Predict the structure.
Amino acid sequence: MKKILICTMALLSFQSIAGGGGSPSCNGSGETKVSWPTNDPVFEFCYLGPEQSSAADGSSLEIRDVYFNGYYAIERSHIPMLFAEYDNGTCYRDWKNTDASFLRPDTVENPTRAAITTCDASVSPTQVVGNCPFQDVSQGGSGSVGNGGDCVSGVTIEKYADHMVLTANHSADWYKYSSRYTFYLDGRIAPRFGFGNSTGTLDDVTHFHHAYWRVNFDIDGSDNDQVFIDNSVQTTEFADMRNQGANTNWTVRDSVTGRGYRVEATAEDYLVTQPTTGDGYHPVDIMTTKYKTIGGNLTEYSDTPGQNNLFECGMAAGNLVNGESIDDEDVVFWYRAAVKDIADIGLVCKFAGPIFYPVGDWDVFNPDVIFKNSFDN
């Protein structure tokens, strides 16, 4: 009787900590569920392509309700804010909900040719690649990369033995942006964004691009979030800059279970810190805020006038980071990637983006181990 009671308590303990092996439903409008690997999945989540994505003017490739080893990790990750900022004072906020065609991978399972977006084809600083099928600028513009029969829009998936890649390609007129998420068996998640130009328009003006990921790490639920800069816990909202020499990292962790994700910049993210335009539109790389609603509606990226208005040409950080407590709250993490295109030599596409590393105990529940240890006692 004692052994049975111990086993039952162990199972209940697992269910209370791990949520009983959670999995997303993906019943929302436009959502598609993906599980990887197909058998005994490590990651399960919902995704939306750019044309189905949320936020004003879309938010690129969007992932929702991410589970890692059955534990809830991310409520939503997307890019609701995207800007093109020129040295001549011109500035645009670009939309992120118009699909652009790109070359699909040759197969989903273990492809020999990965997806090729506008950014993947744009390897020349002076030659345009056009639309899919792209001009082969590596061969002086003669010939094409792939063929028209392989051009698709929306989201493609590539499943390999140790990682999975989701890819999308979208346009804001002549600008073509690529968005990817790579998921690894060890729990890493690598968002990556490419900034491309398909026609050469305004290539004669030095300019910057800014993309802001908004990530709601709801690890083991929306409450009890703690945020760290390196190993120092933060209790109020903050904005931060990347410091290459310091190699700063940021962690969002559940204070009860100890599980979390650490965000680290990649080398590309340190190439551009502050724009040289002098307009002060984008003076921030990192923002951590309390999840903000008014009247039950999410407002922090809706741009409702007077309600956290983020403006047309810049990230008005002070309208998000306004001193609220983030100690054991529902916290949202913002991350900026920026690139610089120098006049007349800026057509080679540039990628940027962070890596998310799991911290804490995300191990898969193994009843055999628990039951064996219980009986041995």
In short: The longest helix spans residues 2-18. Residues 237 and 321 are 6 Å apart (CA to CA).
